[in-house]
Amino acid sequence: MKLTLEELNKTIMEMRTKGFLTEALKLADQGLLVALESENYAYVLDLYYQKILVHHSLGDTLSMVSLMHDYEAICQKYGSSKDLMHYHLIMSLIYDLVGIREKTVEMTKKSIDYAQELQDAIMLVRCHNNLCYLEVEKGCTKEALQAGLLARTYNQSLSKTMPDLAKLHDIRINNNLADVYILEGDFKTGKALLDSTLSSDIIHQHKREKVAALFGYGFLYEKQQKLEEAVPYYKKAVELAKSYGDKPTTKKVMRLLLDVLYQLNWRDEIFDVQREYIDLTEKMSVANLLQQVMNLEFKRQKEKLEKKAHYDPLTGVLNRHFLDHELHEWLNIAEMTQSYVCITVLDIDHFKLFNDMHGHLFGDMALQLLAKGLKNFLHKEDVKIIRYGGDEFILCIKHQQKDYIKTLVNNTHAYLLTLKLEQEHQSYPLKVSMGACVNNQQNYQYKELFERADSCLYEAKDNGRASYVLCELS
Q: What secondary structure does DSSP assign to 368-397, as a single string?
């Protein structure tokens, strides 16, 4: 029986929760092929996210980074707030694995902002637990405890609907909170949390979490100056991390093991562990993971600057740079493919009245609502959305069928009239007038198309506003 993409996505998540990582990876690969072929980008993004998290659980940071290039590109083009939340979580995991703490915290907090906006219980648990771990790394036990307890509160709510996932989250939260209590000197509470982890009936399925618990025991005994008791736990954590190829974690625990061995002055063991540590470090250096991550960061910053130059900062849609520098190429492609082109001009009726009665901030909110509505409604279409100036927007639409464009213009206008601005328990419907001109597969001159569309806009205004007029070149 074939699974739908929705069922497949759910199955992969369940397999990850139960620790069947290799099987989950195979299913994600199969699902991605189907989703990409059908251009179902919502599930493309979900499956990329699942796949990257599997690689994280396997300690395969290189694969995570290599997948991020395609994932980020698709996320920028088709992603929703949910996908951006997932994206920032993954980037926080990658930055953590290569030791860039400032960026790790930044990405985690951005992911939390999205999770709070969406009231995503799973992400609220995961992100606050990650923040707990990060505060532990900084030695900020008060902040770590606050984040860990918040994660636990969210997880108690999650346990009512997703008990298996909540059980896994419990282990992760206990591991991090154990470190907090150990740092505070409350060794009894720390040990009780670690005991709870290793006695869990699912821990044998989750090697990464078991490594964290074994590391926690080593940390517990080291902090009590019971160094000889710390050594076997650190060694067990190293061997388990090595068993599934988690090099970053292996290296981290080896470093701590070496510190304890130096304090004990166990020279023979120091020599063996140090040789293995150096060998691992060289292999990780050859992989050049940090350089790849920095290249990814450079690409992100470059695209961020380009977006700043090409996009309107208030509404997030294209600005006039597209009309001045890129429209010509866009029209050339349309002509080569013999696509119909429609230039549409629209604005908010009585926009000045919005500003005069409610203030410019209210007017900005109306513009943002209009832009968001256009992006949401047209995200699957071959359309460029441009803020021309003030409250005026331009749509450049391209399609092989003229009737499709005419229907799209009609449906877009109808959708925009459903938008309402809510403020102080008051509802303000958005009234929009629109003018459009469809070409004849011969004339691809923007100036003429724009002028005709602009005339149609004024005609719509004369017809009583909140309407649209469309003309066709003969």
A: HHHHHHHHHHHTTSSEEEEEEETTEEEEEE
Highest averaged pLDDT of the listed ranges 13-17, 81-85, 332-336, 395-399? 395-399
Amino acid, single-letter form, for residue 179: D
Question: Domain 206-304 adopts which CATH fold?
Answer: 1.25.40
- Cβ atoms of residues 103 and 297 within 8 Å: yes
DSSP H helix total and E strand total for the chain: 21, 7
pTM: 0.62
For residue 238, the surrounding DSSP H or E stretch is helix 227-243
pLDDT of 1 above 50: no
Fold of the CATH domain 311-472: Alpha-Beta Plaits (3.30.70)
> Distance (Å, rounded) from C-alpha 294 to C-alpha 103?
11
Here the tokens at position 461 are 């205004």
The pLDDT value recorded for residue 228 is: 96
Q: Which CB contacts under 8 angstroms, 24+ apart, belong to 454-459?
A: 454/345, 456/345, 457/345, 457/346, 457/347, 457/433, 459/435
